[in-house]
Amino acid sequence: MESLTKKVLDFQASGKGLHDLVRDLAPTVYQFPRRRMGLDEDACGDFYLYFQPRLVRMLGRYRDTGRSFDAYLKTCLGWQLRNFARGRRSGDRAWETTLRLTAEGDARAGFDQPDGDQGSRSAAGVAGVVAFGPAAGGIASVVRTDADRRSFLFLVLKCQVLVEDRKAEALAAVAGVTVDRLRSLAAVLAERRAPREARLQDFAARRNRAFCRARLLEADLRCETDPERRAALEERLARANRRMRTAMERMAKVGVAPTNREIAEALGIPKGTVDSGLFFLKRKLGAVLGPDTQRSA
Q: Does pTM top 0.85 for this prediction?
C-alpha cells in the first residue's frame, strides 16, 4: 500500500502515470459494491462508471498526513457507495411505481394538458375550421370578400400553432396571401410566443417533478407502519400535491395562441381591426357550422 501511496504522490508531483494508477485501482473500485453490500455485477459496473470521474479528482485531492492512500480510498468509496445506492434505490422505486401506475391505468386526464389553458382552448375551438383546410365545413361559402379573406388570415395566424405546415398553401390561397408571406408572419408570431412556451415548459417540468414525487410518497405510505414516519410522509405528500396544483394553475394562465395585439403588430394594422375581423368572421362561421363553433371560438 505504501507503493500505491508513493505512486499517487509521484503523480501529483509530475502529472504522469495516471493511466497506470487507474488501471491498478480499477479492480478495487469495481469489486467494492459486492464486498461491502453484496451487489450484483450490473450494480458493480454502474458504480464503477459513477465513481470513475471522481477518481481522478480524488487522486489530486489526496494529502499525505500519515494515512495511507488505501485507507483514504476506502473512505471515499464507502461515502460514494452510500450515495450511489441511495440514488439506485430511488430509481428502482420510481421505475416500479411507473410500471404499477401504467398497469393500473392510473387516471391521468388533465395531467398532460391542464384544462384551464385559455390560449389553447381559444385556438382549439376554431382549429377544426382552419386545420382541415379551406374545404372544411363550407369555408368557401363564408370567405368571399377581401375583408373576409383578411379576417380569415387573422384566424389562421391565431391558430397557426395548431396548423400543419403542409396545409399552408391552401390556407394562404383562401386568406389571399402568398405562402411565403404566411410563413413569415407565422415565424414572427412564433418568436413572440417563444418566451411563453419556455415558461409553459418550465411549469410543466415542475408539475411533472411534483407528480412523480407524490406518487413515490404514496407508495412509501402504503408500506410504512410507524406513526411518526407516516405523519412525516403525509406532510411531504401534501406539499408535493400543493406544488403540482400550483404549477398547473400557473400553466393555465400562460396563453399559447398569439394575442390579437401581436397579430396586429405583425401585420402593421390597428388591434381593433383584428378584434372586429375575428368577431364578425366567427359569427359567419357560427351561422354555417353551428353555434358550438361560434361559442368555442
A: no
Sign of dihedral through CA atoms 129, 132, 138, 139? Answer: positive
Instruction: Judge if 282 and 185 occupy the same domain.
Output: yes
* Residue-number span of the structural domain to which 19 is assigned: 2-90
Rounded CA-CA distance 204/129 in Å is: 28
Question: How crowded is the C-beta side of 244, counted as CA atoms within 13 Å?
Answer: 19
If asked whether residues 122 and 86 sit together in one domain, one would say no
Closest to 269 (Cα-Cα) out of 114, 150, 173, 168 = 150
User: How many Cα atoms sit within 13 Å of 290 on the Cβ side?
Assistant: 8
Q: How high is the mean pLDDT in each 10-residue block of the chain (297 residues)?
A: 78 87 90 90 90 87 86 91 84 63 49 42 46 53 83 87 73 87 90 90 92 87 89 94 94 88 93 92 74 47
CA distance 207 to 241: 9
For 145, the 3-state DSSP assignment is: coil
Length in residues, the chain? 297
Reference 142, options 272, 286, 293; nearest CA is: 286
